[in-house]
Amino acid sequence: MRRLVTLAGALLLSTVPTAAARAQTAPSDSTGFRAGQWGAEFTLGTGSGAASGVGALRFFSDRRALLLDVNGRLTRASGDAWLRSDESSLNVRIGPRWYRPVKGHVLQYVSLGVIASHDRREIPVFSSSLDPMTRSTTKSFGAGAFGEVGGSWMVTPQLSLGASWQGVVQYARQTQDARNLGGAIVVPASRSNVWNASFGSLALRAGVFF
Fold first, then answer.
1. Burial of 87 (0-12, 13-18, 19+ CB in 10 A)
2. H or E stretch including 2?
3. Keyword Signal: yes or no (predicted)?
4. Cβ–Cβ contacts within 10 Å for residue 191, how many?
């Protein structure tokens, strides 16, 4: 009986190095995610006027997830309120994202979807025919499509760091008017429809997965 136990133990131990070797040499085509998993993504825009925000990911497989995020920016120069330029924007994106493993803990992904945006810009107006305390306000509501390509380094199965590049094409409705110090309209509102396209928006991203 003792000899049988010893033989069984030796056989079991002999399979450990073989299994470990197979695990090391076998190519991995899994991203490490799973269906039903949730993730939170934090975005830091780079460059002048870049937007930052937060989003959520819902995985339907180890390679496919649904993305929903909100990002925005606020630029307000210091100085006299009637002489500075103020800008703000808010964007909401939703669409599928596809992941694929590249090498080691590095993943590549592509996102496609729809985007809705609201932009507001106030600037001083310098004109001899207008009050010197006149400011022009432009508001824009837009909707369109976005495409994103990015990469992530999985620091741990629950944490990723990476960057992405995004392109956007939108159709927007713009309204512009001008008001004086008292808030009275001195230039009636004008409305226009425009197409906007932006390419080359780079963002840094951190993800937390549950």
1. middle
2. helix 2-25
3. yes
4. 10
pLDDT recorded at residue 156: 97
Rounded to 10 degrees, the C-alpha dihedral 43/107/104/44 comes to -10
| Domains with residue ranges and CATH for the chain | 37-165 (2.40.160.20)
- Cα 108 to chain centroid distance, Å, stands at 14
Take residue 206 and report the two structure tokens written for it.
């951190």
Rounded to two decimals, what is the model's pTM?
A: 0.79
3-state secondary structure of 124: strand
Task: Tell me phi and psi for residue 104, to 5 degrees.
Answer: 60, -125
Enumerate the β-bridge partners of residue 182: none
**In 10 A of CB 77, how many CB atoms?**
11
> How far, in whole angstroms, is CA 96 from its chain's centroid?
13
Contact 177, 188 (CB under 8 A): yes
| DSSP element (H, E) containing 180 | none
